[in-house]
Amino acid sequence: MISFEMPESIRKTTVLMETIAENMMRPVARYFDEHEHEIPWDYINFMHEAMKQMGVSSIAAKNVKKKKEGPRLGNQRQAFMLEILSWGDSGLFLCTPGGGLGAAAVQAAGSPEQKERFLSCHTGEKPTFDAMALTEPHAGSAMPAEVRTTAVRDGDQWVLNGEKIFVTAGHKALVDSDGFVVIWATIDPSAGRAGVRPFVVEAGTPGCSVTKLEHKLGIRASDTVSILLQDCRVPFENLMGSPEVVKDKKKGFKGAMATFDATRPLVAAMAVGVARAALESVKQMLEERGVEVQYGLPRNRLTNIEREIIDMETMLRSTWLLVLKSVWMLDERKPNTIEASMAKVRAGDVVVKITQRATELMGPVGYSREHLLEKWFRDAKINDLYEGTGQINRLIVARRILDYTRHELS
């Protein structure tokens, strides 16, 4: 049965994460926001060693239930960790080495041999990164059905051609470490979604290059890049899924899309961390000015500011419960597509509302760069955009509830 309390086995991990967030991330958050694309190697190297000692690597951590080990907690552990580290700084968190979106795609769509081969790079002596490249210049959220990057088989290799944009951590994966990027390409353009497959392209592969570093509103410590594929050759075994479209009609694209069922709740956890940082900061600044929330009083006896703080706390806690339910279902191997999208939608809305209102409540102080409120406001919006926009996730929820296809409800 689901429990909304933090499991004791996770509590020890969160103590370390809280120390890191407070002492390593918060003090340098402003610096790396103002020095976009400067790599926080001190944080990266420390986290690489810390994660190895804990036996954990972001999303790539194995989550296997063995006898006498109790319930699976892998995704729940990630949610607690990500919330805390994003409270420290979401941009710096995205620089954490180990498994990222690319690893999540390998976990969702890769064979046991591929998981062993590609995810083992994160357990080496040097920190490594991975990324996932789906979006292309010609399309936004409708992109999965319109992939134009091609993969053509040539003997025991695949030849990839195309362009990908807005790739999180792509520079760190391909240039700054010996990592990899998962490229989504079509092996049969006439087959539509059924022809789309994920391919692992490792750092240093000829024909794969980073062409642009984006300058962003928020999460500026994290790199976002464009990738160009020009006759990029990868081994045949770097394909995840079947090379046959007909045989793999239902599993090719849909199987790989399970990646998002794992990552959307974790993005929601990140959003909760940013919102909590803003809310706690406002409460502290108000208390310093003699304004404390009088919990327990009837609503009509509270000041407007007190009511707003309580409303924000309610939004935050309800969002966290959605996150916990979706990651618990994932750990229990239960289908969680609708819950993952609900958590993502709710978190994307709530983090923007809370950070915006927190900035407004503090007036000029909130808008100034003296505090981090304005930074958290800028960091917030991306949580509503990546891993599927709020609009797309609302469509997913509606389709599941109404039992409509994407053609019937779009």
Task: Describe how the helices and strands are arranged.
Layout (H helix, E strand, L loop, with lengths): L7 H27 L6 H14 L19 H20 L7 H9 L2 H8 L10 E4 L16 E5 L2 E12 L1 H5 L5 E7 L9 E7 L5 E6 L10 E12 L16 H37 L15 H28 L5 H25 L2 H4 L5 H8 L9 H13 L8
Parallel strand pairs: 1-4
Antiparallel strand pairs: 2-3, 3-7, 4-5, 6-7
Number of strands: 7
Number of domains: 3
CATH architecture of the largest domain: Up-down Bundle
Largest sheet data: 4 strands, antiparallel
N- and C-termini, Cα separation: 35 Å
Low-pLDDT ranges: 58-69
Secondary-structure element series: HHHHHEEEHEEEEHHHHHH
**Strand pairing plus helix content: what structural class?**
alpha+beta
Helix content: 40-55%
How would you state the average pLDDT, rounded? 91
* CATH level-4 homologous superfamily of the largest domain: Butyryl-CoA Dehydrogenase, subunit A, domain 3
